[in-house]
Amino acid sequence: MSIADTLEALQSKALEQLRSGEHSELLVAFLTTSIMLELTKLVDPNIDLEQFASAAVDVLTQYAPIEQCSLSLQLQDLPSVHVEVGMSGSSPDSPAPGGTASQLTLTDGGTGFLDAHGVPPSLQEAGLVEQAALQLTQGLGRMVEFERLRRSAASGKAFAAIAAIDGQWTEDHLVNVASAFAALPGARAAGISISAARLGGPVSVTSGSTGGQRIERSILIDDRTPVEAWIQISANHAPEHAAKVEELLDSFMSAIERSEQSIRLREEAEMDELTHLGNRRVASRALATTRNLAERTGESFSVLLCDLDNFKKVNDTYGHDVGDLVLKAFASMAAASVRAFDTVARWGGEEFLVVCPNCDEKGAVSLAERLLSGSPLACAPALPDGHAQTVSIGIASYPHHAANPESLVRAADQALYSAKHGGRNTHRTAPYPQ
Q1: Which of 127, 115, 105, 107 is nearest to 36 (CA)?
Q2: What is the mean pLDDT of residues 125-147?
Q3: Is 14 a residue whose pLDDT tops 60?
Q4: Which helix (H) or strand (E) holds 39?
Q5: Co-location of 403 and 289 in the same domain
Q6: What CATH number does residue 61 fall under?
Q7: In what order do the strands lie in the sheet with 427-429?
Q8: How does pLDDT run across 194-237, given as a tens digit for each residue?
């Protein structure tokens, strides 16, 4: 057994003895010294002030018979910190009545307090809370220096994270930007949300602990991609900190807008000229992206394969110009019937594929019924009176009907075949695999 293991065993035994009612001077002195040593170990340039404070409270509640404890810090030019164990809703401004509290005063003017409730009399007499506060004060001096150094470098990291946003950006890029924003001088938290079809659904990322004044930006790109970014800064922030936050938020919004416009140009090259929907390549990419999102979130997704009924007869009877108008009318109706982050693509000929992230079988059936009722109305202006353009639809949901996108589309195709042979103008859902 190592020295560390031996010490941990002795600490646990001493804690058990204290809880059982033994309060000898030697036992109290050993436990107090052990706690001070544990607090000394917490000073680490790789953690932030809130992590330091949380670890300090954990030490006091794990190595002493104390079940309620909080630590609050008010620091110059840095966000305030308040952590607690067993004291839900305690005030960050003053100790709760009935406990044992000790003040922390830092050399740069920062203040705080350590508040503990239910401290055994023997540990109160030994001045455990006061000694812990003194030890934390000494450690906090270095932790504040580390924090200021970390935050002074955060602006450069934030600009670098923004610069990394290009026409191939992913959710990981948003995570990096939000993390850099939350570490800015004066910042407490940051968040970004965006709803784009190519991401497979709405994406929202946050970093830090919320609280304070919220500075935000929001834009709508190309009337279909809403973007929101925000940073919360502490009440005691310096004016220059707010100005830096404003500058970085503006830079991020400009970068994301440029990137989305670049992506849009690429998508236009993959657009079906007649219907202005994405082509089969766009559909395949949407299937892969949506499958990845489903694996991360555990949510199902659905596909609908739609085929215009008796479309060859339309072309043969009324001509291809009328047929083109029917295709365009159905495509427009379908695109207007789905959510902003769903994908409607021309799969080929008179077939259309709809990819619906975060959509179960029930939701897919509801959409199919809207498309069934909408098709005759949408296509009517393109056709002579008396000809109603109907549609047949096959539905399949991941992972219930198939384990990968290719199999999912095949399952939807089989369901479409069933709908066609079931009389058309209807929908069918793929059977569950045996």
Answers
A1: 127
A2: 90
A3: no
A4: helix 25-40
A5: yes
A6: 3.30.450
A7: 343-348, 351-356, 301-308, 391-398, 427-429
A8: 987 667 678 899 998 777 789 999 999 877 789 999 999 877 67
